[in-house]
Specification:
GO terms for molecular function: histone modifying activity. The protein is α+β, with helices and mostly antiparallel strands and about 375 residues long. The chain has one domain: Double Stranded RNA Binding Domain, CATH 3.30.160. Helix content is about 35%, strand content about 15%. It has an 8-stranded mixed sheet with strand order 7-5-4-3-2-1-6-10. A two-stranded antiparallel ribbon has the order 8-9. Helix 1 crosses helix 10 and helix 4 (about 170-195) packs antiparallel against helix 7.
Length: about 375
């Protein structure tokens, strides 16, 4: 399995080096020096980077840095971990979405897709968005660097929580500090302006198309090790936190929800598939107190790639499978549409050419209104 590895909104960047000193492991976990992971919280618009460094004879140092996700480049994972039991459900949902999308796209040979996907020739702010994993609209080559800088500054302005850094002697205590620090910042922002806004320019669907844990995986009857995976999935987070908070009652309720949501260890070292990876590193046998995963639970019950609970795929394979399924379905629908329209074309004649794309004359946000 190649790094970086992605599971939902969680990424593993470096496995680090195993230190066999007693304070660098216990019976259930190993804390490698140089280990690095990250987690993207779409609820608060945060990107947290977790690292472990050598703390000498007193044990490792656990560190977490928070940055606004709006100004942070999202990791480009090489391997995607997904739940193998949900592959069929996830594919069925994708097919349903793609079918409705393709039916819209092939009502005519040249359709709304052409108008919306055609590069816009206007250099107006309405034609551009900040680049990011969830944005398909890329800036035109003629867009000035000055304008892009203005957009970036605007994005920085939107997130008022800013960057912060905490460290401690245990991963759980550090995440408790993360939770409290972010909540304190939220309260202070609200006191100063009377408004608190959470900003994330990444759609919840950005990772849904790469990994697959659906709500069925996290139902009430799921075991503790499965429930422990919920914390990496933003779609299982608090549902009732407003993006813009304008009242003290909303602030109080939201802070309480955020305290529960953020006060969870997200280094990932308590997760079985991460432990599975670490046990493949050299030096594990020298950790005298550590008990191997296979000795703690049966292989069939463990939530690992080796047990078959998870499926590990190269990210390129995931994209290829998605595109192949989508292309085949769209081709099938188009062939069906073409056959159905043969008789109609014989009586009504050939449809007129599409003409110039509307986006060469109109801002993108007005194209839909004009077509309607």
């Amino acid at each position: 399995i190649n790094l970086p590895i992605q599971y939902e909104d969680f990424f593993i960047h470096h496995l680090g080096k195993i230190d066999c000193r007693p304070l660098y492991h216990n019976t259930n976990q190993i804390w490698p020096v140089g280990y690095e992971s990250s987690w993207h919280d779409r609820i608060t618009g945060s990107f947290f980077t977790c690292t472990i460094t050598d703390g000498g004879e007193f044990g490792p140092m656990f560190k977490v840095r928070r940055c606004p996700c709006t100004v942070t480049s999202m990791p480009d994972a090489d391997t995607v971990i997904s739940n193998i039991n949900d592959e069929k459900i996830d594919n069925d949902q994708k097919l349903g979405f793609e079918k409705s999308y393709c039916e819209l796209g092939f009502d005519e040979d040249e359709s709304i897709q052409m108008h919306l996907h055609d590069p816009c020739e206007l250099c107006s702010p309405s034609c551009y968005t900040l680049q990011g994993p969830g944005n398909n609209c890329q800036p035109d080559g003629s867009l000035s660097s000055e304008y892009m800088e203005q957009l970036q500054q605007h994005s920085c302005y939107m997130d008022e929580i800013g960057e912060f850094f905490v460290e401690g002697r245990s991963s759980s205590s550090v995440w408790s500090m993360v939770s409290q620090t972010l909540i304190d910042a939220c309260i202070e922002i609200f006191k100063q302006s009377g408004v608190l806004q959470f900003c994330c320019n990444h759609n919840l669907g950005d990772t849904r198309e790469l990994s697959s844990p659906l709500p069925e995986l996290f139902n009430a009857g799921a075991g503790e090790s499965v429930q422990n995976l919920r914390k990496f999935c933003s779609s299982t987070g608090p549902k009732h936190i407003p993006q813009v908070i304008k009242s003290e009652s909303d602030l109080e309720t939201s802070c309480e929800e955020l305290r529960k949501w953020l006060n969870q260890d997200r280094f990932g070292l308590d997760v079985e598939f991460v432990q599975e990876l670490l046990e493949q590193s050299s030096g594990v046998q020298s950790c005298s107190d550590y008990v191997l995963l296979a000795e703690r639970c049966s292989p069939a019950a463990s939530k690992t790639v080796g047990s078959g609970f998870f499926l590990a795929k190269r990210k390129a394979e995931v994209h290829c499978e998605t595109e192949s399924t989508s292309d085949e379905l769209c081709r099938s629908l188009k062939r069906s549409r073409n056959l159905d329209s043969v008789v109609e074309n014989e009586t009504k004649g050939k449809a007129p050419p599409p003409g110039r794309p509307l986006s060469t004359k109109l801002p993108l946000e007005l194209v839909g209104d004009v077509l309607q």
